[in-house]
Amino acid sequence: MKKRRTSGALFHFQRAGRGGCVNGKRRAVSIAVAGLAAAGFVVTASAITIEKTPFGTVTGIPVDLFTMTNDNGIVLKVTTYGGIVTSLVVPDKNGLPGDIVLGFNTLGGYTAGVMKKANSRLGAITGTCGNRPGDAGGFATRVWEAKVVPGRYVGGVALRCVGRAVQDGVPGNLTADVICLLTDKNELRIEYAVATDTATACTLAHNLFFNLGGEGSGDILGTCVILNAGKFIPLGSAPCAAGAVKNVAGTPFDFRTPMPIGARISDDDPQLHYGNGYDHTWIIDRRNGTGLTLAATAFDHVSGRAVDVLTTETGIALSSGNFLDGTLTGKSGKPYSRRGGFCLEPGHGPDFPDKPGRRGVVLKPGRIYKSTTVYKLYTRGGQ
Questions:
Q1: Of 15, 39, 198, 287, which cross-links 172 as Cys (Cβ 3.0–4.6 Å)?
Q2: Domain around 80
Q3: Please, are residues 297 and 383 in contact by the beta-carbon 8 Å criterion?
Q4: What is the pLDDT of residue 362?
Q5: How far apart are CA 193 and CA 175, in angstroms?
């Protein structure tokens, strides 16, 4: 995470209204996000096509769906409700397309009562302080303002939302800018920037749950994962409590070499009992300061699909989809059974705002929180 002083502006939106985003009473906090997309985007005939379609309404507010497609058959869909990534279609090793993120075909799937649980907001922007339970009133249930970001080799959508962080139990009124981009190199690149009028805890991420075999295709226990991390943060008996950082050596949390998610998930380990499986944060072994670094790789042997996760953050959370219980029916019409998806979410530990000695998530007025995550998609045998 980087926190920089405000300078310049990438894009501007009208004042937000009631509800924090497109409809609110609170005055929008002024935000400028210079350098968030340093290359600058040119409106040209593009290899990345972008389509905007209606996706329904929430409390009378129109919700849009943006579809980005590149020349390699990658299709990314992002909605203005919660900034949700609703779909990510990727060809397998035989060239057959498949949707690899969990989600729903309609807006109603995301707004139904069961989806009010914070840990099942599939594909949404978590925050105002990600990797913490609760998130009541957070960005995941807001309608974001949006602008198309066109370009020759990269294109997507720029989202903006104004939120009252007090609704998530911390002070401050926040303005968040999130850019979701698809590149011609088969990358999903997400850039986050946040400003505040009061010192507050802040981290943003997307709660993307993957099934590289295709959503609804069964459990992900055979998916191999590599984590570039020699330490992890143990959970406590309470959902947000965490203990001292521990080494992964000799534990079921050692993913420094390729390991199926299900290989040790049933081991008699107290931490696996606390999380009902994997639901922990690992500390990334960094060698390049604060820039993008490879945090994780996941690979499915059957489909050949793989994803590298690069981030500017300090940690990477792995969730093995323990909360899924078959009550959610996804885009394929099949129920999402237990461990039917996994999440690799960059960020900080689950209790970092409560641990003053840990690296900062506190954002102060006049500073900008910035973070970038890149999901690089490929099949085995080449990138």
A1: 198
A2: 2-6+14-28+42-379
A3: no
A4: 83
A5: 8
> What are the CA-CA distances from residue 365 to residues 11, 34, 266, 359 (Å)?
20, 16, 45, 18
CATH number at residue 110: 2.70.98.10
pTM: 0.84
Cβ neighbours of residue 17 closer than 8 Å, sequence gap 6 or more: 23, 24, 25
On whether the CB atoms of residues 180 and 157 are closer than 8 A, the answer is: yes
The pair of structure tokens assigned to 379 is: 């099949």
Copy the structure tokens of residue 135.
């998130």
382 C-beta neighbours (distance < 10 Å), count: 7
Q: What is the mean pLDDT of residues 142-149?
A: 94
- How much is the mean pLDDT over the chain? 81
Q: Is 317 helix (H, G, I), strand (E, B) or coil?
A: strand
| Cα separation, 29 vs 45, whole angstroms | 35
Count up the domains in the chain and report the number: 1
